[in-house]
Design goal:
Blueprint lengths: L4 E7 L9 E6 L5 E6 L2 E7 L9 H12 L8 E5 L5 H9 L4 E6 L2 H10 L7 E6 L2 H6 L6 E6 L14 H10 E13 L4 H11 L4 E6 L1 H4 L5 E8 L5 H10 L5 E3 L1 H7 L23
Helix pairs in contact: 1-2, 1-8
Amino acid sequence: MGRRGIRAQDEAPEADGPPRMELLADADRAESWFLVVDGTPQSHVDLSDPSYLDFSYMRRIAHAADLVAPEREPIDALHLGAGALTMARYVAHTRPGSRQRAVDVDAPLVELVRRRLPWDRRAQLRVGIGDAREWIGARHDSSADLVVSDVFAGARTPARLTSVEYYTEAARVLRPSGLLAVNVGDGHALAHARRQVATVRAVLPHVALTAEPGVLRGRRFGNLVLVAGHRPLPVDELGRRAHRDPEMARLVEGGDLDRFASGRSAVHDADAADSPAPPEDLF
């Protein structure tokens, strides 16, 4: 990312050490910005073309958003972890009329995005401040077609957003045909990702995983995307789209996913831990 962006603005932290938020202009695309928090790239947005997704894991989440309902049909979507609202903007653009709600615990970040990276006010998008676990617990049963869980504190997902109890709340708000998409950061032996697969499978019966081959082989740290639902997933099309991506990814499901998560137990609140930190030189 560093070779593509130019520093546009620093939001300096206060003395007590709140997160440092930076906006970096994308030198390759007009009206495009990277949001970086404490040195970790959190989001990329193209204000003139919300359908453009720079991060490969976001494109794989978008595959789920594209397949959750017929093309252009409005959906109800919940976004846990707002960031720069990349996926919410994408859904609003590709599915006009969609009703969306997003939440983020970081009020200064939300204000920065609202002020510097405004979204289309015609979009039915409401953004709130709050804890994702508490917020999803307050949503109505069977109220969402799409739930995106993409919550990071710095470069790590908080422990309480990795457990059976958390995913049970996400599954509760999903409609029977809805999809849950989860961004999982991991590397090396993928111990965290394997347990996350076991955890989501303890809650929802149909699960698939997509990641770039180098990440799946543990050769480098990266993002894996879990897609899950109450009903069978469109795995053939998810796999085709992952394979055709500019940064080709693989889809793992069925027996291959059984082997991926073999011997791993589901995570509960009592034994949950933050996702692993990436290598210091990753970004």
